[in-house]
């Protein structure tokens, strides 16, 4: 029986680092962000629907979507943002599930779905266990300012646009504390994976 883990966190919590650790442990990771970029490539259904909805003015010379232009359109327009989400999200879900089901069929023991908005988009029914990568807000703030060059106000705005990590922690089946070193995080992950695999084997 395959164990499906839903991996999530918040901005600058270190979810990508843990995602790479899963790779190191030979656990396949299906990344929602990567798929969301794939499904808007030219000739994809979602791409055609986006162009039909927003017009050719959002295209670059090579016919790929100009993300900055599209971002400007949806940034302050709730209706247009909703339209875009209604095109992209189902396409991403469909592709994620196809990849998940292929791995399950192949008998892979553990599969990770890396979904940044796992709780916000109510997608927990797609997985067996939810795993949240957690850091304190001060660590989150420092990392975000260092990584993206934001000032404190910009960093706080981005943090506050998501469900707080403390809330996600309450909803999760397990939490990895990523305030320390990479080695400490890796050890927590190894231990948790072993526990969950043992439980799956017992059942």
TrEMBL record:
Its EC number is 2.7.1.24. The keyword NADP does not apply. It catalyses: 3'-dephospho-CoA + ATP = ADP + CoA + H(+). One of its GO terms (molecular function) is ATP binding. One of its GO terms (cellular component) is cytoplasm. CDD domains: DPCK (cd02022). It is found in: Cytoplasm. It is an enzyme of class 2 (transferase). Keywords: ATP-binding, Coenzyme A biosynthesis, Cytoplasm, Kinase, Nucleotide-binding, Transferase. Signal peptide: none annotated. InterPro entries: Depp_CoAkinase, P-loop_NTPase. This is Dephospho-CoA kinase. It comes from Oceanobacillus picturae.
């Amino acid at each position: 029986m395959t164990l499906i883990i839903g991996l999530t966190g918040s901005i600058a919590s270190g979810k990508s680092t843990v995602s790479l650790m899963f790779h190191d442990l030979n656990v396949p990771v299906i990344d929602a962000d990567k798929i969301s970029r794939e499904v808007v490539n030219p000739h994809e259904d979602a791409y055609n629907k986006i162009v039909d909805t927003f017009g050719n003015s959002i295209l670059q010379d090579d016919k790929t979507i100009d993300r900055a232009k599209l971002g400007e359109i949806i940034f302050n327009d709730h209706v247009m943002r909703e339209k875009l989400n209604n095109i992209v999200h189902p396409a991403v879900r469909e592709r994620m599930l196809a990849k998940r089901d292929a791995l399950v069929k192949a008998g892979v023991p553990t599969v990770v779905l890396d979904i940044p908005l796992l709780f916000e988009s109510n997608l927990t029914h797609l997985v067996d266990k939810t795993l949240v990568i957690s850091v304190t807000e001060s660590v989150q703030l420092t990392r975000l300012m260092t990584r993206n060059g934001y000032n404190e106000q910009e960093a706080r705005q981005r943090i506050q646009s998501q469900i707080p990590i403390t809330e996600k922690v309450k909803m999760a089946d397990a939490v990895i504390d990523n305030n320390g070193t990479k080695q400490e995080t890796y050890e927590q992950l190894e231990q948790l994976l072993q526990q969950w695999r043992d439980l799956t084997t017992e059942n």
